Sequence to fold (227 residues):
Amino acid sequence: MKANSRRVALYGLLVALMLVLGLLDKSIPITWFLSGAIPGIKLGLANTVLLYAIYLMDWKSGVLLMAAKAVLSGFIYGSVTAMLISLSGGVLSLLVMLLIKRGPAVGALAVSGLGAAGVAWLLARGVTLRGDMLWCVILLCAACAAGVAVFLFVRKNPENGVIGTSMIGAVFFNIGQTLMAVAVMRTPQLLYTYLPFLVAMGAVVGSLTGIVARRVFLALRALPSRQ
Fold:
């Protein structure tokens, strides 16, 4: 009974931390800038807690925390539609991260593949490379390069694997959100006018979140030796 009480308290603490980090995410100046340029972009600080659950707890804890955060955030900050969009992104992201956890380098390569495929798809559509479309191609190329860099980083030191997992999780979170938005709002044009930006920014932001999570994990593992 005592162990169950501790587990419930831990879940409550982690959910509260995710909500606070989500609120903090909206208060960071760089988030204002990114959201002004590309609506919906966030740093995803709350994802560090989800990574904690995936790596240091179990998959059931990850599912519970993801669902609780999506539902509570919808009630506190958004609407039912926003809740569905967030939940769809969270489900797809968590599923991919759980699958890729044992091979995070593969996840980084997958991000590179998505970036390259996005560029090829846009060029095949005969888009004119100027304005937003030019930025779209540039960002997708940047995502491809970031995926290769993280792949090499992870292969060099397996302890950096959480960065690859975080990167692909952020990318698929944006993909899940966009697919749900397309289904709910019936706006298929988002797939080529908006999704490429989100894939590229997800690769960058996911890498940053993974670096933060790795530092947290190292600190937590160091605690016992200091006592």
In short: The chain has one domain: 2-226. Residues 222-227 have pLDDT under 50 and may be disordered.
